[in-house]
Amino acid sequence: MVWGSARKKYLPDARLFPVDIRYNNTVFMLYHERNLRTMKNEKILGEFFKYSSLNVMGMIGLSCYILADTFFVSKGLGADGLAALNLAIPVYSFINGSGLMIGMGGGIKYSILGSRNSSKASNVFTDTVYLAALFAVMFITVGLFFKESIISLFGADGNVFDMSVTYLKVLLMYSPAFIMNNVLLCFVRNDGSPQLSMTAMIAGSLSNVVLDWVFIFPCGMGIFGAAFATGLAPIISMIILSVYFIKKRNGFRLAKTAPDLKTIAAILSGGVPSLVTEVSSGVVMIVFNSIIMRLEGNIGVAAYGIIANISLVIISIYTGVAQGIQPILSKSCGERNYHDMRSVFGYAVLAVIFVSVVVYAAVFFFAGPIAGIFNSEGNAELQRIAEQGLKLYFIACPFAGLNVIVSAYFTSTEYPLPAHIISVLRGFAVIIPAAFFLSAVVGMVGVWSAFPATEVVVCAVGVVFYMICSGKQRNVFLRI
User: Fold this and answer.
1) N or C: which end of the chain has fewer CB within 10 A?
2) d(CA 187, CA 100)
3) Are 237 and 201 in contact (CB under 8 A)?
């Protein structure tokens, strides 16, 4: 009677179990566990889509800061304006990378700590703001005293030099807004409001697109107008985020506390891969600009500007997925839930592979029209170089996506060292030597091939790290 009543209570349909009653309880338990796991997987999949889709849309919008500048500058100022923009943009990578490092590092610490000791969450946010202020002062100082030296170092001259200095100065003056916007976006997202975070990013980006057109064409403000529109975008984004604080929905706030060096070190450690990922884009642009300037001159640099800025948008998709899985991974890590960690990582890998296939197919078959969008003067040499670059450079897509996801997995689950190694390999140790060597051997084909070659090598290293570290995590968590 006990066996029968248990079956009736939980699974009234006896036809599901055409087995002798003596074994029915065992069969029921297996069936029940499978259903629990299915429901759990569906929940994690739902959270993955919720966070990742919103962050992908937001990051695409964020990356359109520069892509909109590229489009409108190419239309309004021609090849010289495009070259000037491309020479100044690497510094934006340093500013944005610093903001992501501080925001992501603080967000990771906030998520992990929140699941264990929520009373210290505001202290983490306060230390994050201290870091943001320090970096903002550093960038403003560079903007006031070193902007001309930087542009001279990049090899600009004449009209290109003047436009580059103007654009760079405005970007550096707005660095506090860029950095603090990244911090607030990460904390609001990790505090359970990814929709608001996404809305703020997209609103800022759309405002940049509109203001770019207004300042460059009707107002005739030239390169200054493009930079000014870009600088206003994060301010608009923060105004939207302020709703979160006005309605007092935030689980974090500024606390009256001195900087905690241990917490600051943890924030920096968790965010370094995000910094290296962004900064590496800037460093690679500097190196590539130098090599291309020697091989093809200003036209080559302008062509690379098209490719590099499209690349920023594509990498932003991968970064959006990585930021989307970060809160889930950090929370699961804090709860020592290996199953959820493994599931969300698998979903992220499938997502970036799918996106990469679609992106490369579009780039390969529509390289001509894509290059033509930014070639307002109809320059045949610019068109030729850009088309060749698009088809070769973006072979790296799936490998770059996997590297970003693997790096995010490590930083989000308290394994920062492998993420640091991957980031350094991608950003400096492999790609720079590859660019110099391959360009010396096969010219511009070598320049375009350096990026995919690097991502393939680093991807192999990342797979090995993941197999080792995830195995260790599994053994540790299952013993708890």
Assistant:
1) N
2) 11
3) yes
Residue among 452, 466, 460 nearest 419 (CA) = 466
pLDDT of residue 34: 47
Q: What are the φ and ψ backbone dihedral angles of 248, each rounded to 5 degrees?
A: 55, 45
- 248 φ/ψ sector (left φ>0, alpha ψ -120 to 50, else beta): left
Give 248's DSSP letter. T
pLDDT number for residue 32: 46
Q: CA 307 to CA 19: how far, in whole Å?
A: 64
Task: Please provide the size of the chain in residues.
Answer: 480
Is the pLDDT confidence value at 9 over 60? no
| Residue range 385-403, pLDDT digits in tens | 999 999 999 999 999 999 9
Choose among 228, 215, 232, 229: nearest CA to 76: 215
Distance between CA atoms of residues 45 and 354, nearest Å: 16
Q: Which is nearest to 270 in space by CA: 416, 413, 405? A: 416
**Across all residues in the chain, what is the average pLDDT?**
80
Instruction: Check: CB of residue 204 under 8 Å from CB of residue 174.
Output: no
Tokens at residue 34, please? 């499978």
Evaluate whether 171 touches 91 at the Cβ level (below 8 Å): yes
Q: Are 148 and 165 in contact (CB under 8 A)?
A: yes
HSE toward the beta carbon, residue 426, CA cutoff 13 A: 34
The terminus-to-terminus CA distance of the chain in angstroms comes to 37
Token digits of residue 66: 């520069």
